[in-house]
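=== RUN LOG ===
request id: a7f3
mode: sequence -> structure
chains: 1
length: 81
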Amino acid sequence: MEQKELKPASENNDGKKSIWVIAGEYSSLGFILPSCVFAGYLIGYWLDKKFGTTYLYLVFMILGIISGFIQIFRFLKKHED
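=== RESULT ===
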């Protein structure tokens, strides 16, 4: 009995991704940076309330910006072709 090669559901018979899958992947770029910044802000805000400080939200927001750009560069590097 011959076994068939399993392909991801997002690929066509010729091995290329559907235009809808590509559009979905690239539309996620619009959410990466804002979500990282917002997550950093929330963590910093929570730590400010916990420790009684007033600057940690800014530190973690900057870390969120940096991590957002790193994620965007990783995504673009992975899809470079």
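=== NOTES ===
The mean pLDDT is 87.
Helices lie at 19-27, 29-51, 56-78.
=== END ===
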